[in-house]
Write a structure and sequence with these properties.
By secondary structure, this protein is α/β, with parallel strands linked by helices. Helix content is about 15%, strand content about 30%.
Length: about 450
């Protein structure tokens, strides 16, 4: 951990957003690389360049169903004066042996099949009579239904130029080319390319395992009845979904009651499957803020195991709105990073976007440019000026219109307004020194999608 993150509470110092984020990112390091099978590597980041061992395609092949021919044999062919060629066989995809095409001959060929020796072009079946002796056809007769179609004569009604409808060997990638660079996130197209060049596994940084724990005796699981004074637990669902969206493997832990020992034992039980722990709630100054109670006291250097071994969690006040109370440190014998977020839904989500998402993407091993959400400048459209507390960096929910370069506030500034958050796709940033922003002003906007 950095020198700043010691097991304590920062009562006197008001941290800036940038200071808190810098402390997190200077402490969190990319996970160690491992070798994974292709499908297990989806969403992971490559740690080394991948070189093409075999060209794609590995041989000249047909891009159409039709006839492999010599160009001279079909020169000047028309429907009135077709070129009549002798069909000497079939070539299907995956066929290893092909007949040689001599002058005046053709081979019936399927899409993806290797181009036979001495063939120079492929005539689509639609340019021929399909061997039926009549006008142009629209499709081939199945080999199983009419094996005699692989012999006899075919009339070609149009000429074909050299290499027409032929996919050349190496036209996609050539042997020795770099297929993918280190730092690439493996999505479906990248997995496809790796499989196509014969790679069964790759060396990657694994997706971080993130455990999300919400706290509060008032929380009830969705689908269950609410008693007086209770609310549904939305934070754990929101943050688990956000962690998955960031690229992590996320595990949601149901709400933990306001009991410090229960929370400590819950976190300790979860460490076996966590590269990062995120808690929400219980970090303010109330009498029942159990996250502070449970984690502020840990970090006994003499403790050999358990959550306190080698631990240190610091609780801070940040110069931001929403999300003033924050916690950061490490827990357990493996010094697993832990970020403690506020419990108000908007505060929790904004804090995740600013601090947890960059930590996840750093654990993934992504380059610095891909760690943070993109930011743009946009013109504020609003009915009245936005107000912001002096000395606080405010993050307001907004709807961004890239076509017009504008952003419009969504909902108010309250940190409980979940409905407004659901309709926002951006955060409007109001700097610490700004207390009022007039409509038409250019503002910084963090894009959330």
């Amino acid at each position: 951990m950095s020198s700043a993150t010691t097991p304590s509470s920062s009562h006197g110092h008001l941290w800036s957003v940038d200071e808190h984020l810098e402390d997190i990112l200077s402490t969190v390091h990319p996970l160690d690389p491992i070798e994974l099978q292709l499908l297990d590597a989806q969403g992971c980041v490559l740690v080394e360049d991948v070189t093409v061992p075999v060209s794609l395609p590995p041989f000249d092949n047909s891009s159409m169903d039709g006839y492999a021919v010599r160009v001279a044999d079909v020169a000047g062919a028309s429907e009135e004066f077709p070129a009549v060629l002798t069909v000497i066989g079939d070539v299907a995809a995956g066929q290893s042996e092909q007949p040689t095409v001599r002058p005046g001959q053709a081979v019936r060929i399927m899409t993806g099949a290797p181009l036979p020796p001495d063939a120079e072009a492929v005539v689509p079946v639609e340019w021929t009579d399909g061997g039926l002796g009549a006008g142009p056809v629209s499709t081939m007769t199945a080999h199983s239904a009419a094996p005699e179609g692989a012999s006899g004569e075919v009339r070609v009604h149009r000429a074909a130029g050299d290499r027409a409808h032929v996919r050349a060997r190496g036209s996609d990638v050539k042997a020795g080319d770099r297929a993918l660079a280190a730092g690439t996130v493996l999505g479906p197209p990248q997995i496809s390319l790796l499989a196509a060049i014969g790679r069964g596994s790759v060396r990657v940084r694994p997706r971080p395992r993130v455990v999300v724990v919400s706290t509060g005796s008032e929380l009830v699981q969705p689908g269950e009845p609410l008693a007086q004074g209770q609310i549904y637990d939305s934070n754990s669902f929101a943050l688990t979904a956000a962690a998955r969206d960031a690229g992590a493997i996320a595990y949601r832990v149901g709400a933990v009651a306001d009991d410090a020992e229960t929370l400590r034992s819950t976190i300790e039980d979860q460490l076996i499957r966590a590269d990062l722990v995120v808690t929400t709630g219980g970090v303010s100054v109330g009498a029942y803020d159990v996250v502070k109670e449970a984690l502020s006291a840990i970090g006994d250097p003499d403790e050999e195991d358990g959550i306190g071994a080698g631990s240190g969690v610091e609780f801070r006040k940040l110069a931001m709105q929403p999300g003033k109370p924050q916690g950061f440190g490490a827990v357990g014998p493996d010094h697993t990073p832990l970020l403690a977020l506020p419990g108000n839904p908007v505060s929790s989500y904004v804090s995740f976007e600013l601090f947890v998402r960059p930590a996840i993407r750093t654990l993934m091993g992504l380059p610095a440019g891909a760690v943070h959400r993109p930011q743009v400048r946009a013109k504020l459209t609003a009915d009245k000026a936005l107000t912001s507390p002096a000395g606080r960096r405010q993050f307001l929910r907004g709807a961004h219109d890239p076509a017009t370069g504008t952003v419009t506030p969504v909902g108010g500034a309250g940190s409980h307004l979940v409905a407004a958050l659901a309709h926002a796709d951006a955060l409007i940033v109001v700097p610490e020194a700004t207390t009022s922003v007039e409509p038409g002003t250019q503002v910084d906007v963090v894009l959330l999608s």
